[in-house]
Amino acid sequence: MGITAAEQHDRTVVDDLDPSGVLARVSEAETAERRAGLAKLELALQWCVLHPASPDTGTAVWGDAGLPGLDGSDEHLGGEGCPQVAAFAPEPFAAALGVSTFTGMQTLADALDLTHRLPNTWAKVRNLTVAPWKARRLAQATHHLSQQAATYVDEQLADRIDTCGSALIDRIVTQAAARFDPDPVELDEQEAKLSWNVHLTHRADGSFAGTSHLEATGDTLAFTKLYDLVCDHAHHLAELGDLDPLGARKAKALGVIADAQSQLDLFGQAPGESPPVRRPSLSRTRLYLHLTPSDLIDPMVPIGVGEVEKLGPATSRRIKEWLGSSRATVVPVLNLDRAYSVDEHDPPEWMRETVILRDRHCVFPWCRVDARGCDLDHITPYVPIDDGGPPGQTAATKLAPRCRRHHNAKTTGRWQYQRHPDGTYTWQGPHRACYLVTPLGSQALPGRADTSALSGPG
Ligand SMILES: [Zn+2]
């Protein structure tokens, strides 16, 4: 994208500024940013006003439901005391913002929470004395509080929100929760236990590098013992000559503990008993690796590069290490252009795999839900053969992955889409807004799409 004449003019003006000029301009820039943030929140609020929930529309919720008749099954956008918003109102708003539906819903929820639950803070956003992003941070921190507790936080923090840090916000929010929702400590502990979990995440921003992130929340004593064990192993690795930095040795120690544990009987060995036998593991580690076999076995290829699905490239050396300590299932290469069709509604496994590998994620604009968790949708609604449907309706080129939320958004007729021979998709939403989805990302289309070929509910 080139630089416009106005931008070039601004650039020249900035290059000419002296120190006092920079300070004046940066203050102006902050004010402009606050105005823009305020405008976005006011527009979000107006969008909610224009789309109230009714028995006919259903109610927008954070989960995947949102269809009429399912109103009570999930959490509404705004906190307690906020009006409810019609189902499928967030999708066009988010698409116009150029963000995921979830991010658009967060903007709508923040606007509702600020105006209906944090009026003092909202007044300061409106007169530009509080930065909108700070007010939104408060809205999200108080979202799960009762309205009474949110009012308390608003009164405590509205005058200080522009200068206080997140630690003070957290303290006041905790105080409010304890004061207005005086659950006994035991109940808090039971609730905290619901948040116990272990998450493994892989970098999806192109910086994979064979490295992943493990996050765990759980019992303080058990975790302290585990951490002490990790540090002990890391120290022992150094004694054995491992020259890696301490952080890397701690991460390796987790692998050492996992390897040792997988070969032991979890229930231990009583004195005098024979040595523990390997306990059959019920765990299954699954990574989808794409590589050329010659990269692994051809001595003329010193180091090849394969791909870990959804994550990024990995060297053949790293893949060999992984394969050496795992059982691998090898499947032949799928031809993604395979054009066969079948005369049944459900695609065969190879066709499903082809569509998943081709599109990788839900094909709604800006949605990144993994295709393996999506429904495969007939882009043109399937008509059973017995009802006069044509043969060959189920083919990879006629299927697309869509997450449950966006499956519902299309099924209710609000969104229509089309797949093109080059693998891109054109979507049209409410108010004739159009979007192009390509393997590289989504973009708004300025013109109006030709709707004649777009598929309707299905
Ligand atoms: Zn989706």
Side-by-side strand order of the widest sheet: 10-11-12-13
User: Which molecules other than protein and nucleic acid are bound?
Assistant: zinc ion
The tally of beta strands, per DSSP, is 13
Average pLDDT metric: 82
Distance between the termini: 38 Å
Set out the fold topology.
Elements: H1 5-15, H2 19-50, H3 90-97, H4 101-117, H5 119-126, H6 132-142, H7 147-157, H8 166-180, H9 185-194, E1 197-202, E2 212-217, H10 220-239, H11 246-262, E3 289-290, H12 293-297, E4 305-308, E5 312-315, H13 316-324, E6 341-342, H14 349-359, E7 375-378, E8 394-395, E9 399-402, H15 404-411, E10 416-419, E11 425-428, E12 434-438, E13 441-445
Antiparallel strand pairs: 1-2, 3-4, 4-5, 6-8, 7-9, 10-11, 11-12, 12-13
The structure holds zinc ion.
Characterization of this structure:
- With 458 residues, the protein is an alpha+beta fold.
- It folds into four domains: 18-182, no CATH class; 193-218 and 286-330, no CATH class; 221-265, no CATH class; 341-453, no CATH class.
- The longest helix is centred in the N-terminal third of the chain and has 32 residues, at 19-50.
- The relative contact order is 0.07.
- The protein has helices spanning 5-15, 19-50, 90-97, 101-117, 119-126, 132-142, 147-157, 166-180, 185-194, 220-239, 246-262, 293-297, 316-324, 349-359, 404-411, and strands at residues 197-202, 212-217, 289-290, 305-308, 312-315, 341-342, 375-378, 394-395, 399-402, 416-419, 425-428, 434-438, 441-445.
- The strands form five sheets. A four-stranded antiparallel beta sheet has the order 10-11-12-13, with no helix packed on it. Strands 3-4-5 form a three-stranded antiparallel beta sheet. The protein has a two-stranded antiparallel sheet with strand order 1-2.
- It contains 15 helices and 13 strands.
- It starts with a helix and ends in a 13-residue tail after the last strand.
- Zinc ion binds at residues 362, 364, 367, 369, 402-403, 405-406.
